[in-house]
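Example for reference:
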Amino acid sequence: MAQSMNLKPFYLLLAVVAVAGGAWIWSARSGAAFEPVEVGPLSDSALAASGWVLGSQSAPVEIVEYADFGCPACARLAIITIPDVRRLLVATDRARLRFRDFPLGNPVVDMAHQAAACAGEQGRFFEMADQLFLNQSRWALEEDPRGRFEAFAEAVGIDLGRYGTCMAERRHWERVAAGRQAGLAIGINSTPRLVIGGIMLIGAQPYDSILKYVELAEARAAQ
């Protein structure tokens, strides 16, 4: 289901990054050194793992993001690059963004993916994802971050009773696991990865790299 965008938290953090995050920006741009990989059409199992979609279903290009909420490079991508993707590509209906969970096996991170999915049950997946990436350093090393996740859930305006029940039941774990299986099916073994028009980009790519492959996919779609 497509969801509306709330970009305010990202804009606030970008101001902080502009002052103190020069090294982060360099690191994110260094992802462009990786060569893109042709992955071709997705398998039936990959297509079945729908993930979480932001933007119009009629957009001509889909950007599929595979990410782990505890991955520092994924946080850099989310903080530095994805706001431009949302503002310049998703909000203008040039592309839609599909997030697929790809937890790398840490139990605390698994819990974070479940928390985002439970927020998604109430239409707030991307808002919760923003909170998890923005505050990654606050929860990633905790043994039990459930209380912090609940505070994030409250901050994005979801019903905490429904959220708590969802978390206790691990209600969406199969959906989270399906996202990982979809990634494994096309050879993903690290995060973040972006797939645009059958091309896989490796690492925390800058916006210009993403735009290049969106434009290529647009050209193909127009043929």
